[in-house]
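F.,

This is the one I mentioned.
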């Protein structure tokens, strides 16, 4: 009986500890038009709070980011391909992006940006997501 009780107590504490386990999130970004400029990114939690931002150089029209020590949860990710390094997404008439951009889950675009819920993905173990760049203006 004492052994059964000890096992019960151990199992009771093991499951809640799982949510505190740290994981690695790898984000692979592909289909970039060229290697010009930089890629600016932002990682959000499920409450739309910005967790990490940064910039990367582009190589072979791709980028890869690795986020260490991620807790189990839902996240969203977006990026822009800042070809002229002015640290913003350049637009043309009616706010149409001139440079590339993308989101987690590669949502289908309608009029305007996707709903935040479409961008959410879950991390419950080491996770890799793939994001493809979108270009609406092909004259570059």
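My design for it:
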């Amino acid at each position: 009986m004492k052994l059964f009780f000890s096992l019960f107590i151990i199992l009771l504490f093991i499951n809640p500890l799982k949510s505190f386990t740290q994981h690695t999130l790898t984000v692979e970004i592909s289909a970039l038009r060229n290697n010009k400029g930089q890629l600016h990114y932002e990682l959000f939690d499920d409450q739309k709070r910005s967790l990490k931002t940064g910039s990367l150089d582009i190589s072979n029209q791709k980028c890869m980011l690795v986020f260490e020590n991620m807790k189990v949860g839902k996240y969203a990710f977006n990026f822009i391909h800042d070809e002229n390094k002015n640290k913003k997404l350049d637009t043309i008439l009616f706010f149409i992006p001139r440079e590339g951009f993308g989101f987690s889950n590669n949502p289908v675009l309608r009029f305007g940006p996707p709903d935040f819920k479409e961008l959410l993905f879950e991390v419950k173990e080491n996770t890799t997501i793939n994001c493809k760049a979108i270009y609406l203006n092909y004259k570059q």
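The mean pLDDT is 89.

Talk soon.
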